[in-house]
Amino acid sequence: MNAEPNAGPIIRIEGLTKRFGPIVAVDRVDLEIARGELFALLGGSGCGKTTLLRMLAGFETPDEGRLFIDGQDMTDVPPYRRPVNMMFQSYALFPHMDVAANVGYGLRRDGVKAAEIAQRVAEILKLVHLEDHAKRRPSQLSGGQRQRVALARALVKRPKLLLLDEPLAALDRKLREGTRFEMVRLQEQLGLTFVMVTHDQEEAMSMATRLAVMNAGRIAQIGTPHEVYEHPASRFVADFIGIANILDAPAGGWIALRPEKITLSDTRPDLAHAVAGRIVDVAYEGDRSLYRVETQGNGIMTVSTTNTSRSAGEAFARGQTVWLGWADEAGQRLEA
Protein backbone atom coordinates (compact mmCIF):
# COMPACT_ATOMS: atom_id res chain seq x y z
CA MET A 1 0.00 0.00 0.00
CA ASN A 2 1.35 3.45 -0.92
CA ALA A 3 2.45 5.79 1.84
CA GLU A 4 0.65 9.10 2.22
CA PRO A 5 2.33 11.97 0.35
CA ASN A 6 4.56 14.14 2.54
CA ALA A 7 5.04 11.28 5.02
CA GLY A 8 8.12 9.12 5.23
CA PRO A 9 11.10 9.21 2.85
CA ILE A 10 10.83 11.07 -0.44
CA ILE A 11 12.47 8.13 -2.24
CA ARG A 12 11.91 4.46 -1.48
CA ILE A 13 13.52 1.84 -3.66
CA GLU A 14 12.68 -1.84 -3.22
CA GLY A 15 14.69 -4.58 -4.92
CA LEU A 16 15.46 -2.46 -8.00
CA THR A 17 17.25 -4.40 -10.75
CA LYS A 18 18.34 -3.41 -14.26
CA ARG A 19 20.03 -5.66 -16.81
CA PHE A 20 21.63 -4.83 -20.13
CA GLY A 21 21.88 -8.21 -21.82
CA PRO A 22 24.08 -10.43 -19.61
CA ILE A 23 25.26 -7.45 -17.53
CA VAL A 24 23.43 -6.73 -14.27
CA ALA A 25 23.95 -2.96 -13.95
CA VAL A 26 21.84 -2.56 -10.79
CA ASP A 27 21.35 -5.62 -8.62
CA ARG A 28 18.40 -5.75 -6.15
CA VAL A 29 19.01 -2.34 -4.59
CA ASP A 30 17.02 -1.24 -1.53
CA LEU A 31 17.33 2.41 -0.55
CA GLU A 32 15.49 5.18 1.28
CA ILE A 33 16.32 8.88 0.96
CA ALA A 34 14.84 11.40 3.38
CA ARG A 35 13.33 14.74 2.45
CA GLY A 36 15.80 17.59 2.32
CA GLU A 37 18.87 15.38 2.03
CA LEU A 38 21.80 15.95 -0.27
CA PHE A 39 22.42 12.30 -1.01
CA ALA A 40 25.38 11.05 -3.07
CA LEU A 41 25.67 7.84 -5.07
CA LEU A 42 29.41 7.23 -5.11
CA GLY A 43 31.42 4.65 -7.01
CA GLY A 44 33.76 3.92 -9.89
CA SER A 45 32.88 3.42 -13.56
CA GLY A 46 30.40 0.62 -14.15
CA CYS A 47 29.24 0.37 -10.51
CA GLY A 48 25.60 1.12 -11.39
CA LYS A 49 25.26 4.62 -9.93
CA THR A 50 24.29 6.37 -13.18
CA THR A 51 21.84 3.62 -14.15
CA LEU A 52 20.20 3.98 -10.74
CA LEU A 53 19.93 7.75 -11.21
CA ARG A 54 18.43 7.28 -14.70
CA MET A 55 15.81 4.92 -13.26
CA LEU A 56 14.89 7.62 -10.73
CA ALA A 57 14.52 10.07 -13.60
CA GLY A 58 12.47 7.61 -15.68
CA PHE A 59 14.99 7.35 -18.52
CA GLU A 60 15.50 3.63 -17.78
CA THR A 61 12.82 1.13 -16.77
CA PRO A 62 13.74 -1.43 -14.09
CA ASP A 63 13.49 -5.15 -14.88
CA GLU A 64 12.49 -5.90 -11.29
CA GLY A 65 11.57 -4.00 -8.14
CA ARG A 66 9.56 -0.88 -7.30
CA LEU A 67 10.39 2.81 -7.10
CA PHE A 68 8.37 5.28 -5.01
CA ILE A 69 8.75 9.08 -5.08
CA ASP A 70 6.86 11.10 -2.49
CA GLY A 71 4.79 8.05 -1.60
CA GLN A 72 3.66 7.39 -5.19
CA ASP A 73 4.67 4.35 -7.25
CA MET A 74 6.71 5.78 -10.13
CA THR A 75 8.17 2.52 -11.43
CA ASP A 76 6.49 2.75 -14.85
CA VAL A 77 5.70 6.47 -14.92
CA PRO A 78 7.35 8.40 -17.83
CA PRO A 79 9.91 11.12 -17.03
CA TYR A 80 7.65 14.07 -17.86
CA ARG A 81 5.07 12.95 -15.28
CA ARG A 82 7.53 12.67 -12.38
CA PRO A 83 8.11 15.47 -9.81
CA VAL A 84 11.77 15.32 -10.74
CA ASN A 85 14.27 17.37 -12.72
CA MET A 86 17.74 16.36 -13.81
CA MET A 87 20.91 18.34 -14.35
CA PHE A 88 23.26 16.67 -16.79
CA GLN A 89 27.05 16.59 -16.72
CA SER A 90 27.26 18.44 -20.07
CA TYR A 91 24.78 21.15 -18.85
CA ALA A 92 23.09 20.97 -22.32
CA LEU A 93 22.52 24.73 -22.63
CA PHE A 94 21.12 26.15 -25.87
CA PRO A 95 23.95 28.24 -27.42
CA HIS A 96 21.57 30.49 -29.40
CA MET A 97 19.55 31.48 -26.31
CA ASP A 98 20.60 33.94 -23.63
CA VAL A 99 20.75 32.95 -19.95
CA ALA A 100 17.18 34.02 -19.15
CA ALA A 101 15.77 32.12 -22.13
CA ASN A 102 17.74 29.00 -21.22
CA VAL A 103 16.51 29.09 -17.63
CA GLY A 104 12.89 29.69 -18.64
CA TYR A 105 12.82 27.10 -21.43
CA GLY A 106 11.10 24.35 -19.41
CA LEU A 107 8.47 26.74 -18.10
CA ARG A 108 7.64 27.89 -21.66
CA ARG A 109 7.24 24.27 -22.75
CA ASP A 110 4.86 23.72 -19.84
CA GLY A 111 2.71 26.63 -20.96
CA VAL A 112 3.42 28.91 -18.00
CA LYS A 113 2.40 32.52 -18.67
CA ALA A 114 5.12 34.95 -19.72
CA ALA A 115 4.76 37.22 -16.69
CA GLU A 116 5.17 34.32 -14.26
CA ILE A 117 8.14 32.97 -16.25
CA ALA A 118 9.86 36.35 -16.05
CA GLN A 119 9.29 36.54 -12.30
CA ARG A 120 10.46 33.01 -11.56
CA VAL A 121 13.53 33.32 -13.80
CA ALA A 122 14.51 36.59 -12.12
CA GLU A 123 14.13 35.00 -8.67
CA ILE A 124 16.23 31.95 -9.47
CA LEU A 125 18.96 33.96 -11.24
CA LYS A 126 19.26 36.12 -8.13
CA LEU A 127 19.53 33.00 -6.01
CA VAL A 128 22.48 31.70 -8.09
CA HIS A 129 24.06 35.19 -8.30
CA LEU A 130 23.58 35.54 -12.07
CA GLU A 131 20.99 38.34 -12.14
CA ASP A 132 23.45 40.58 -14.05
CA HIS A 133 24.06 37.90 -16.71
CA ALA A 134 20.48 37.35 -17.91
CA LYS A 135 21.16 38.61 -21.45
CA ARG A 136 24.46 36.84 -22.01
CA ARG A 137 24.87 33.78 -24.20
CA PRO A 138 26.46 30.58 -22.80
CA SER A 139 29.61 31.24 -24.86
CA GLN A 140 30.10 34.49 -22.92
CA LEU A 141 30.12 32.70 -19.54
CA SER A 142 32.79 30.90 -17.55
CA GLY A 143 32.49 27.19 -16.79
CA GLY A 144 31.26 27.91 -13.29
CA GLN A 145 28.64 30.36 -14.57
CA ARG A 146 27.36 27.84 -17.14
CA GLN A 147 27.07 25.30 -14.33
CA ARG A 148 24.93 27.73 -12.33
CA VAL A 149 22.72 28.43 -15.36
CA ALA A 150 22.08 24.70 -15.73
CA LEU A 151 21.31 24.47 -12.03
CA ALA A 152 18.93 27.46 -12.24
CA ARG A 153 17.14 25.88 -15.20
CA ALA A 154 16.64 22.67 -13.20
CA LEU A 155 15.46 24.52 -10.08
CA VAL A 156 13.11 27.04 -11.71
CA LYS A 157 10.49 24.31 -12.26
CA ARG A 158 10.43 23.74 -8.48
CA PRO A 159 10.86 19.96 -8.55
CA LYS A 160 10.45 17.92 -5.38
CA LEU A 161 13.62 16.10 -6.32
CA LEU A 162 16.69 17.27 -8.23
CA LEU A 163 18.99 14.67 -9.78
CA LEU A 164 22.57 15.67 -10.57
CA ASP A 165 24.80 13.60 -12.85
CA GLU A 166 28.47 14.39 -12.07
CA PRO A 167 27.52 18.08 -11.62
CA LEU A 168 31.05 19.42 -11.10
CA ALA A 169 33.00 17.15 -13.47
CA ALA A 170 33.42 19.82 -16.17
CA LEU A 171 35.00 22.36 -13.78
CA ASP A 172 38.66 22.74 -12.90
CA ARG A 173 39.78 21.82 -9.38
CA LYS A 174 39.78 25.32 -7.87
CA LEU A 175 36.37 26.15 -9.30
CA ARG A 176 34.96 22.82 -8.12
CA GLU A 177 35.94 23.58 -4.54
CA GLY A 178 34.09 26.92 -4.52
CA THR A 179 31.07 25.52 -6.36
CA ARG A 180 30.63 22.71 -3.81
CA PHE A 181 29.89 25.23 -1.07
CA GLU A 182 27.55 27.15 -3.38
CA MET A 183 25.50 24.05 -4.21
CA VAL A 184 25.24 23.02 -0.56
CA ARG A 185 24.09 26.57 0.30
CA LEU A 186 21.41 26.46 -2.40
CA GLN A 187 20.20 23.01 -1.40
CA GLU A 188 19.85 24.04 2.24
CA GLN A 189 18.25 27.38 1.38
CA LEU A 190 15.64 25.80 -0.91
CA GLY A 191 15.02 22.78 1.31
CA LEU A 192 14.93 20.47 -1.72
CA THR A 193 16.19 16.92 -1.98
CA PHE A 194 19.28 16.53 -4.17
CA VAL A 195 20.52 13.13 -5.36
CA MET A 196 23.98 13.38 -6.87
CA VAL A 197 26.02 10.83 -8.79
CA THR A 198 29.79 11.18 -8.58
CA HIS A 199 32.97 9.13 -8.86
CA ASP A 200 34.84 11.79 -6.86
CA GLN A 201 35.02 10.72 -3.23
CA GLU A 202 36.21 14.15 -2.08
CA GLU A 203 33.17 15.74 -3.73
CA ALA A 204 30.77 13.30 -2.08
CA MET A 205 32.44 13.55 1.33
CA SER A 206 32.41 17.36 1.38
CA MET A 207 28.83 17.85 0.09
CA ALA A 208 26.58 14.94 1.05
CA THR A 209 24.55 14.58 4.22
CA ARG A 210 24.63 10.82 3.49
CA LEU A 211 26.14 8.72 0.74
CA ALA A 212 25.90 5.23 -0.71
CA VAL A 213 29.08 3.56 -1.90
CA MET A 214 28.25 1.31 -4.86
CA ASN A 215 30.14 -1.66 -6.26
CA ALA A 216 29.11 -4.10 -9.00
CA GLY A 217 25.50 -2.91 -9.04
CA ARG A 218 24.99 -3.17 -5.29
CA ILE A 219 25.25 -0.79 -2.35
CA ALA A 220 28.33 -1.66 -0.32
CA GLN A 221 27.58 0.81 2.51
CA ILE A 222 25.29 3.72 3.36
CA GLY A 223 26.06 6.35 5.97
CA THR A 224 27.21 9.87 6.68
CA PRO A 225 30.62 10.78 5.26
CA HIS A 226 32.07 10.51 8.77
CA GLU A 227 30.55 7.05 9.35
CA VAL A 228 31.73 5.66 6.03
CA TYR A 229 35.27 7.05 6.40
CA GLU A 230 35.82 6.19 10.06
CA HIS A 231 33.87 2.91 10.10
CA PRO A 232 34.07 1.25 6.68
CA ALA A 233 31.99 -1.92 6.59
CA SER A 234 34.22 -3.84 4.19
CA ARG A 235 37.67 -3.93 2.65
CA PHE A 236 36.24 -2.54 -0.58
CA VAL A 237 34.82 0.55 1.14
CA ALA A 238 38.00 1.12 3.16
CA ASP A 239 40.07 0.98 -0.04
CA PHE A 240 37.67 3.13 -2.06
CA ILE A 241 37.16 5.95 0.45
CA GLY A 242 40.43 7.75 1.08
CA ILE A 243 43.65 5.86 1.75
CA ALA A 244 43.69 2.85 4.04
CA ASN A 245 46.43 0.55 5.26
CA ILE A 246 44.91 -2.94 5.34
CA LEU A 247 46.56 -5.09 8.02
CA ASP A 248 45.99 -8.74 8.88
CA ALA A 249 44.05 -9.18 12.12
CA PRO A 250 45.23 -11.87 14.58
CA ALA A 251 41.78 -13.52 14.73
CA GLY A 252 41.25 -13.47 10.96
CA GLY A 253 39.87 -10.72 8.73
CA TRP A 254 41.54 -7.33 8.39
CA ILE A 255 42.11 -4.04 10.15
CA ALA A 256 41.81 -0.73 8.25
CA LEU A 257 44.20 1.92 9.49
CA ARG A 258 44.01 5.45 8.07
CA PRO A 259 47.34 7.22 7.37
CA GLU A 260 46.56 10.16 9.70
CA LYS A 261 45.94 7.78 12.62
CA ILE A 262 49.61 6.72 12.56
CA THR A 263 52.42 8.65 14.26
CA LEU A 264 55.76 8.92 12.50
CA SER A 265 58.91 9.41 14.58
CA ASP A 266 62.63 8.66 14.67
CA THR A 267 62.33 6.91 18.05
CA ARG A 268 60.06 4.09 19.17
CA PRO A 269 56.67 5.58 20.24
CA ASP A 270 54.99 4.64 23.50
CA LEU A 271 51.84 3.26 21.83
CA ALA A 272 50.05 -0.09 21.72
CA HIS A 273 51.49 -0.85 18.29
CA ALA A 274 54.92 0.12 16.99
CA VAL A 275 56.85 -1.06 13.92
CA ALA A 276 60.14 0.06 12.45
CA GLY A 277 60.52 0.84 8.77
CA ARG A 278 62.31 2.72 6.04
CA ILE A 279 60.80 5.57 4.01
CA VAL A 280 60.67 4.61 0.33
CA ASP A 281 58.56 7.49 -1.06
CA VAL A 282 57.65 11.03 0.00
CA ALA A 283 54.84 13.17 -1.43
CA TYR A 284 54.80 16.78 -0.23
CA GLU A 285 51.28 18.21 -0.71
CA GLY A 286 51.60 21.57 1.00
CA ASP A 287 49.28 21.18 3.97
CA ARG A 288 50.32 17.58 4.49
CA SER A 289 53.00 15.07 3.52
CA LEU A 290 52.46 11.42 2.61
CA TYR A 291 55.14 8.85 3.38
CA ARG A 292 55.26 5.29 2.08
CA VAL A 293 57.19 3.23 4.61
CA GLU A 294 58.48 -0.30 4.04
CA THR A 295 57.96 -2.26 7.26
CA GLN A 296 58.66 -5.77 8.44
CA GLY A 297 55.47 -7.82 8.72
CA ASN A 298 53.02 -5.19 7.40
CA GLY A 299 54.58 -4.47 4.02
CA ILE A 300 54.46 -0.88 2.73
CA MET A 301 52.33 1.42 4.88
CA THR A 302 51.21 4.97 4.08
CA VAL A 303 51.49 7.63 6.78
CA SER A 304 50.13 11.20 6.63
CA THR A 305 51.54 14.11 8.63
CA THR A 306 50.12 17.62 8.91
CA ASN A 307 52.53 20.40 7.99
CA THR A 308 51.76 22.98 10.67
CA SER A 309 55.09 24.80 10.33
CA ARG A 310 57.23 25.82 7.35
CA SER A 311 59.83 23.16 8.13
CA ALA A 312 57.41 20.33 8.95
CA GLY A 313 57.39 18.96 5.41
CA GLU A 314 61.15 18.40 5.54
CA ALA A 315 61.21 16.50 8.84
CA PHE A 316 61.65 13.08 7.19
CA ALA A 317 63.41 12.04 3.99
CA ARG A 318 63.46 9.11 1.59
CA GLY A 319 65.70 6.30 2.84
CA GLN A 320 65.40 7.34 6.49
CA THR A 321 64.76 4.71 9.19
CA VAL A 322 61.65 5.60 11.21
CA TRP A 323 59.10 4.22 13.68
CA LEU A 324 55.36 3.98 13.09
CA GLY A 325 52.95 3.80 16.01
CA TRP A 326 49.22 3.69 16.58
CA ALA A 327 46.68 3.10 19.33
CA ASP A 328 44.32 0.12 19.50
CA GLU A 329 41.29 2.29 18.75
CA ALA A 330 42.91 3.72 15.60
CA GLY A 331 42.11 0.63 13.56
CA GLN A 332 38.74 -0.52 12.24
CA ARG A 333 38.01 -4.26 11.93
CA LEU A 334 36.63 -5.17 8.48
CA GLU A 335 34.43 -7.83 7.02
CA ALA A 336 35.64 -9.72 3.95
Provide a descriptive summary of the structure in words.
The protein is α+β, with helices and mostly antiparallel strands and 336 residues long. The protein folds into two domains: 11-230, 3-Layer(aba) Sandwich (Rossmann fold); 259-334, OB fold (Dihydrolipoamide Acetyltransferase, E2P) (Beta Barrel), CATH 2.40.50. 25% of the residues lie in helices and 33% in strands. It is built from eight helices and 18 strands. The radius of gyration is 24 Å and the shape is globular. The two termini are 37 Å apart. Residues 1-5 have low confidence and may be disordered.
Please describe the structure with a list of short key phrases separated by commas or semicolons.
OB fold (Dihydrolipoamide Acetyltransferase, E2P), alpha+beta, Rossmann fold, six-stranded mixed β-sheet, 2 domains, 8 helices, five-stranded antiparallel β-sheet, disordered N terminus, 336 residues
Could you provide a short overview of the structure?
The chain is α+β, with helices and mostly antiparallel strands and about 325 residues long. It is built from eight helices and 18 strands. The longest helix has 18 residues, at about 175-190.
